[in-house]
Amino acid sequence: MQNRLSFLFIGDIIGKAGRNALSREMRELKEKYNPDLIIANGENLAGGFGMTKSTVDAVFASGVDILTSGNHIWDNKEFAELLKDERIMRPLNYHPSLPGRGYNIFRVKDIEVCVANLCGRIFMQPLDCPFRKMDELLEKIKTKIVIVDFHAEATAEKQAFAYYLDGRVSAVIGTHTHCQTADERILKNKTAFITDVGLTGSTDSIIGFEPEGAIRRTLLQVSQRFEVAKEMTAVNAVFFQVDAETGEALSIERIFKHAKD
Q1: Is 72 a catalytic residue?
Q2: Per-residue pLDDT tens digits for 16-74
Q3: How far is it, in rounded angstroms, from Cα 57 to Cα 100?
Q4: Could you identify which of 18, 25, 86, 247 might form a hypothetical disulfide with 144, taking C-beta atoms 3.0 to 4.6 angstroms apart as the criterion?
Q5: Pick the catalytic residue: 72, 151, 176, 178?
Q6: Contact in structure between 133 and 116 (CB atoms under 8 Å)
Q7: Within 13 Å, how many C-alpha atoms sit on residue 108's CB side?
Q8: pLDDT digits (tens, 9 = 90+) for 88-114
Q9: Domains of the chain, start order
Q10: What is the largest CA-CA distance in the chain?
Q11: Where are the alpha helices (DSSP H) in the chain?
């Protein structure tokens, strides 16, 4: 049996600019890192809000294997049909009557890998407790390798979640805030962690969107239309390796790659 598996986790893909940046850079990323599985957060694929079939198809065609999501998965009316695809996750701690799945188990080189997706609750919706939902999931499954996309706003909640799961999952990858943090590390019980993997899209932006809308909303305290920014795109990601027999993380590397024009 192969003694390790390699994973590439791509930060929240923001609109067409993010999709195009990923498409341009994927070949070099695959050549450099040779990952066994590529996961990306896709809740902002379609104009920054939700997913559509065409945007999902484009990202899968670029080489992504699995899409995770977050609170914006429900923004587009196509979500019910899209979530029938076993490669697309919605957060586990939404009500179980909603379409889709919060985790799935995939076979990667004849090794089982569980990918789970949960939302935080601080400054977000009052969903079921993600800590308890992960306890329930880990009691249910026997998979050694477990990768978690924790889609949350608060830094402290993300870090608490990672430490709570340290030694019980292979990796906790933070998403949602679209700002890559410089704290990638392996915790003492061998769980790989980063507070936020960042975005794939425009870096000349406010969290992937044209600055004007965000500035006006902050100044005026009323809703504004957000437009996806297009300039100076980049791919934010992490590459990590996991022991195939124990599920322990062996390494983690943060990636910030400017996209070619």
Answers
A1: yes
A2: 999 999 999 999 999 999 999 999 999 999 999 999 999 999 999 999 999 999 999 99
A3: 17
A4: 247
A5: 72
A6: no
A7: 28
A8: 999 999 999 999 999 999 999 999 999
A9: 4-258 (3.60.21.10)
A10: 59
A11: 15-33, 53-62, 79-82, 130-140, 155-165, 211-220
